[in-house]
Amino acid sequence: MMELLSYEFGQRALAAGVIVGLMCAVLAFFVVLRRMAFVGVGLSHAALGGVALGVITGTSPLAGAMTVSLVVAWVIGWLTRRGRLTEDTAIGVLFPTAMAFGIALMSLSATYRQDLIAYLFGSILAIRTADLQLLIVLAAATLSLLALFFKELVFMSVDEEAASAARLPVTTLRYLLLTVLAATIVASIKLVGVVLVSALLVVPAATGQLAARSMKSMLVVSVMAAEISVIAGLWLSWTWNLPSGSTIVLVSATLFLVAFVSRRRADGAP
Amino acid sequence: MNESAAITFDDVWFSYDTVRTLERVSFDVERGRFAALIGPNGAGKTTALRLLLGRLRPTRGRVLLFGSPPGRQREAVGYIPQRVTVPRGFPLTVFELVLMGCYGRLGLGRRPRRPDRDAAVHALERVGLVDLAGRYFETLSGGQQQRALIARALAGEPQLLLLDEPTAGLDPAARADFYNLCCLLQREAGLTLLAASHDIDAVAHHADRVILLNRTVLAVGSPHDVLHAPVLQEAYRFPARHHDQEHDHRAPGTAPS
Question: What burial class does residue A236 get, using C-beta atoms within 10 Å of its C-beta: 0-12 exposed, 13-18 middle, 19+ buried?
Fold first, then answer.
């Protein structure tokens, strides 16, 4: 680990990893509570269309990913606003469409494929100073919003109708959550990759749910699980020359397995 | 229309795109009454509740709560759904669920304080669940869960409770227990209640006003008058037709599917 930290790119990757871990873990709490795992998968894959657009047009791939992810997130919110379509149906339509768009764009130019591989599976070499600065701004904005409206988001996630009766702005809160989800996915793409970022939006909270006895402790355990996954995953990625996304997710899955087995033993299951 | 009533439907029409769910719906519910909204599946009961919650807007006509459009009234409104399902194993305690009832009163971004926590405890005492405050909501029985949802509504100090099939899936004892508690709250706290229900027996025993709905209002009055009206049998014998007449393309004489 010390060797990794002796390089500037290693320091940037670790700083980005800690921020991404925090963002994903807090958001994962709501992803699990609202059963939005498929929305996370869909938005992250849809971001590929934006990455391809940015690469092909020579503009910023992250700006492209942010644009496409936000558009897809808001269209999901619009399509599901009166319950005419469920979230999973809406994302089932939009996610392959945006991804197909990305694949079609990729096929136009073989030159850029190497860049796209890094976006697909993540790379610790990919984090530049400008990326880290963008990440800090996104994290400050998303975490502040989640902290400010935490109780309202929990109420809405448990029972939207009752939250409406209590005069909470349910529609605005839904769009807020989708926007924060899209922003977090884009912020995580360079380190974890579009294919695997959705895992960080579920697995840490699933681990927290197994290990905790209250919502507060679930949040704390989720953050700890995400940070351990990111730090250990980056170190393993450096040591064994593996894509950072896959090692982070494998560590995260291992922590989940440990929590699962421990919980079964604690519950006295055979 | 009586605009001082707790609930007013004034010539309300509503369509989901081309599917008309409500037409010419007019009724009101006086303050302090326990009204039941009955009707067959697809009659528009849940749509009527969603209009009252401000989740939907009428295509035509007016829906008022205490004389104001839903969401703009000063009086607090509590909502009790058929059920609340949290993901299996999610550590949401009964107390945390009931405390949510205070969030509307608190305002955006403000955290619950001691008086709010006291209000949640008091609400749990009123429904007899204070001993289960630390239990996970999902581990309660169906009847206990419905009591916890009443407590959540009470924690917001409402003037009106809206109930959507609140006893579906409960055994007869739990159903009677639930409605007895509702009647007690109506008498003691002067609450207005509107319950959408299929449970005609319970309605006959507990409500003091019944609205029979089947896309439009077929009858309004006391339980005795409405439940003995010939129109009740007609409403339940012939399921509500969901499709707008203008968009119904079945061949003449074809039986409904």
Answer: middle
